[in-house]
Amino acid sequence: MGTVEQSRAFVLVHGAGHGGWMWKQVRDQLHAKGHRVFTPTLTGLGERSHLMSGDITLQTHIDDVVNVFKWEDLTDAVLVGHSYAGWVVTGAMEQLEDRVSGIVYLDAFLPDNGQRGMDFLNEQQAAAFDEAQARGDVSRPGPNSKALRIQSEEDAAWVDSKITQQPIGVSLQALELTGARDRVAKKLYVRAPLFPQPRFDAALKRCQADDSWKTTVMENCGHDPMIDDPDAVVALLEDML
């Protein structure tokens, strides 16, 4: 149980097509335990979907997260990135190294210097991406509950009602990293294997082989553990304190 003395700031960053809404149950539990919780919605998604444009880049989303820390004066915080947000939090760490004491990759990409989202697409995805660009589209469809492996029908319907388009421009920018992520004192990689993603499997193995990382496998969750099992996610996050 969290106490006032143990209270911490958590910044929870959502994945592609999602928004801050996805953290509702986790956020409410952490608030009830006395923590400060921030669930920013990245530009162009969720309740900020009216801001969708071709000008949105990965840097835009990195700035979204960095600015939460700056304007809320956050220090000694736990930063969490889900799925696509692995790119975002990795880039944000380059500006937040003195403000983050723990980082969590929740079924997320674990990118390295010089990589970009386009590099991680399979052949079919890359073809669809190229077609969207050729049409002049600025976004692509977000995932649906079936693809996400949402476990309950009620949750699946809720998620499908909230998913929005994902901006294409975020996949075109390469990360420029100096290793700030790897210097964070506490690092956790969480894998939800009901969701098939070889990149995440590789990231889990990589972290398991590195003593500076802790790892957890959530066997009974789809790609959105904060929806399928919010209690377990809260427990994992409090272990980062």
UniProtKB/TrEMBL annotation:
Q: Which domain of life is it from?
A: Bacteria
Q: Which Pfam families match?
A: Abhydrolase_6
| Domain AB hydrolase-1, residue spans | 10-235
Kindly list the GO molecular function terms attached to this UniProt entry.
methyl indole-3-acetate esterase activity; methyl jasmonate esterase activity
Signal peptide stretch: none
Q: What is this protein called?
A: AB hydrolase-1 domain-containing protein
